[in-house]
Design goal:
7-stranded mixed sheet; Aspartate Aminotransferase, domain 2; 14% strand; two-stranded parallel sheet; 411 residues; Aspartate Aminotransferase, domain 1; 2 domains; alpha/beta; binds 4'-deoxy-4'-aminopyridoxal-5'-phosphate
């Protein structure tokens, strides 16, 4: 039905993490703490420009680069480096991987969704329960005819993975060509990843049922501090399911790569989408369609982030400096996990807090209720998502005792 009056459109709420940051910025309380947004902060609560990235900026400045348009698919040198970072140089050069530069990880997810909806026509997309909230919005907007179904992921009673539930849902409800979104590592928001043995079983099911895999990889390096180790699941799926001899090849596989977090390039919006096609299929038609969607939406991607990433990854010395930067971020977050757990225990806070230390990546799924989260905000000026997700990078040696005391209080 046509809209008669623009004023009839309902007002929609801001996404929670953005609304929280806005509320935090308005808050004049001196000891306020932002544990809402998934961005890295240093031990003084400040944004951290990675030293390797600073160096690359200087190099680019001295090169007096121009500002011409990129090709629609993006900068080919950047794409080779980004692809090899995910898949390894051995796998990366395979002909059945097609790569396009995107507007960060969100743009990669969006492009994957629009491609699937328009070309693959799956009945359902399976999304982990819970997940990054934008997965729902992206698929709602880009693929309105695809039914969004949740697969069990988090089990509150064990604060762990509901692996049996996840596998049973895919086994019983997914049909050939359906899409399944998998978080490659450092699952957002739970901080819980499948083990290697569990990944192998997931791969077997998605291959046997000929599903279409969408790996979302936004935190490569944040799970272990090692970007190769964090790409294990993606490389395993590629090597076993897409080998010519495999009888378990899925319909296809996208990998949505964000370089926002591991390069600290949040606002530069840099990422890539990689499509893996079964070896019997030519990738040319799929690539042409992806290129056409990019042309319609953004014409061609943006330059600066691609130049930074390519400059860092192309230079052996800078690359190892960057790997050290990633390790520093991952280790600092690991360190505050331990600090928070110890502080909570020191205060005799009721409950078992070992999950805070055991969970992986940037977030902890604390188990706090939405009412407790609300009280933390109203009474203690501590901001986190209402589902109990805490972005640990907002914690540091100076505020961890305050946060632990506040949690003790709301419990
Ligand atoms: N996927 C997941 C799971 C995320 O957590 C995020 C960032 N919050 C993204 C994708 C997208 O990140 P960006 O668009 O900033 O690269």
């Amino acid at each position: 039905m046509a809209l008669k009056n623009l004023g009839d459109l309902p007002v929609l709420p801001l996404p929670e993490s953005f609304a929280l940051t806005a509320a935090y910025n308005e808050d004049s309380f001196p000891n306020k703490v932002n544990l809402g947004q998934g961005v890295y902060r240093d031990n003084n609560c400040q944004p951290w420009v990675l030293p390797s990235v600073r160096k690359a900026e200087e190099t680019l400045h001295n090169q007096q680069v121009n500002h011409e348009y990129l090709p629609i698919a993006g900068d080919s040198k950047f794409l080779t480096k980004a692809r090899d970072l995910l898949f390894s140089p051995e796998i990366g050069s395979s002909e059945n991987i097609t790569s396009l530069q995107t507007i960060a990880g969100t743009g990669a997810n969006h492009l994957a969704a629009i491609f699937c909806a328009r070309n693959l026509h799956p009945k359902n997309v399976f999304i982990s329960d819970p997940t990054w909230d934008n997965h729902h919005l992206i698929w709602e907007v880009a693929a309105p005819n695809v039914t969004r179904k949740l697969y069990p992921y988090y089990e509150p009673s064990t604060r762990g993975l509901n692996f049996e539930g996840m596998l049973a849902e895919l086994e019983n409800s997914a049909e050939e060509n359906d899409v399944v979104i998998l978080h490659a590592c450092a699952h957002n928001p739970t901080g819980i990843d499948p083990t290697k043995e569990q990944w192998k079983k997931i791969a077997e099911v998605v291959g046997r049922k000929k599903l279409f895999v969408v790996f979302d990889c936004a935190y490569q390096g944040f799970a272990s501090g090692d970007t190769d180790a964090d790409a294990w699941a993606i490389r395993y799926f590629y090597s076993t399911l897409f080998a010519e001899s495999s009888s378990l090849t899925p319909a296809g596989m996208f990998v949505c790569q964000s370089l926002s977090k591991n390069f600290g390039l949040y606002g530069e919006r840099i990422g890539a989408l990689h499509l893996v096609t079964p070896s019997s299929n030519s990738p040319e038609g799929a690539k042409a369609h992806l290129v056409q969607f990019v042309r319609a939406e953004i014409s061609c991607p943006s330059l600066f982030g691609a130049r930074i990433v390519q400059t860092v990854l192309d230079d052996a010395e800078l690359r190892s400096k960057w790997q050290e930067d990633v390790r520093i971020m991952a280790l600092r977050i690991k360190g505050v996990r331990t600090l928070l757990k110890l502080e909570l225990e020191k205060l005799g806070t009721p409950g078992d807090w070992s999950h805070i230390e055991q969970q992986i990546g940037m977030f902890s799924f604390t188990g706090l209720s939405s009412a407790q989260v609300q009280e933390l905000k109203e009474k203690h000026h501590i901001y986190m998502l209402s589902n109990g997700r805490m972005s640990l990078s907002g914690l540091n040696e100076s505020n961890v005792a305050y946060v632990a005391q506040a949690i003790r209080d709301v419990l």
